[in-house]
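[recover] target loaded
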């Protein structure tokens, strides 16, 4: 891992930052390079965008296996090029993102690049979102969280495919895992999985309370069935216009949750 653009963060993990920064991707997609110390071959998690320089640098890592955390294009657009350059099989939860391999199964343990890697189902951001635990990476292991947990800020619930009910259940599942180092798909590495899960859970419940209050206010003002746009105007007053669509998507997910679980 001598490439100067590759950043090593633990005994078993390093990342190459893709050149796709933006309001939703933060600094860009972290394409993770996993291998045991002294091993020649590697696992790549999330090839990232279709960028020749980025994918060429990943292909130079003697790739044995390619894994996908979820379906979004900033994680998957480079699948076919990296598969062609390396011949490595691609595995994801959804069959349409697999190449020469079977879909991943939650609870599965993978052995490759001298590593043990455990597959966890963590839907919510999307229905196919997975996280990957490296149990032997340091004293408490490390957890690749895709977009389920970000290194900075909080993720969106990509409704209607993603649901808040699933997301809260996934946070509970991550709480039950070891308090691992967090290796997110966007943003910096975080030291404590449990700490960030607690913060994310608190944030989600605070947002739900804001949605309840907005609905009550709008209904009191004569709006029997407030729109997503009206709720977003109240809850996300100062949101950057570039991420207004994401805010509305999150509001839709939270409204759906309240309707399903609280008959609100």
């Amino acid at each position: 891992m001598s490439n100067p653009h590759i950043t090593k963060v633990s005994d078993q993990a390093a990342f190459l930052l893709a050149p796709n920064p933006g309001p939703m991707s933060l600094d860009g997609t972290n394409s993770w390079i996993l291998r045991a110390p002294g091993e020649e071959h590697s696992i790549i998690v999330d090839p990232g965008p279709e960028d020749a320089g980025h994918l060429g640098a990943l292909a130079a890592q003697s790739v044995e296996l390619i894994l996908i955390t979820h379906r979004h294009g900033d994680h998957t657009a480079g699948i076919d090029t990296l598969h062609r350059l390396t011949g490595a099989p691609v595995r994801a939860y959804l069959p349409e993102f697999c190449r020469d391999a079977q879909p991943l199964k939650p609870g599965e343990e993978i052995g490759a690049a001298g590593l043990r890697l455990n597959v966890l189902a963590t839907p919510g951001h999307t229905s196919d979102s997975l996280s990957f635990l490296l149990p032997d990476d340091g004293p408490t292991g490390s957890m690749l969280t895709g977009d389920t947990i970000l290194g900075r800020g909080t993720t969106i619930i990509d409704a209607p495919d993603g649901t808040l009910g699933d997301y809260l259940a996934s946070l509970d599942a991550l709480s039950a895992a070891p308090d691992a180092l967090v290796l997110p798909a966007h943003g910096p590495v975080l030291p404590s999985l449990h700490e960030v899960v607690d913060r994310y859970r608190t944030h989600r419940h605070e947002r739900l309370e804001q949605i309840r209050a907005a609905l009550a206010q709008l209904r009191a003002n004569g709006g029997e069935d407030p729109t997503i746009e009206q709720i977003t105007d109240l809850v996300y007053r100062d949101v950057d216009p570039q991420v207004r669509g994401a805010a509305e998507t999150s509001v839709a997910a939270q409204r759906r949750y309240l309707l399903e679980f609280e008959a609100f």
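[recover] notes: DSSP finds seven helices and eleven strands in the chain.
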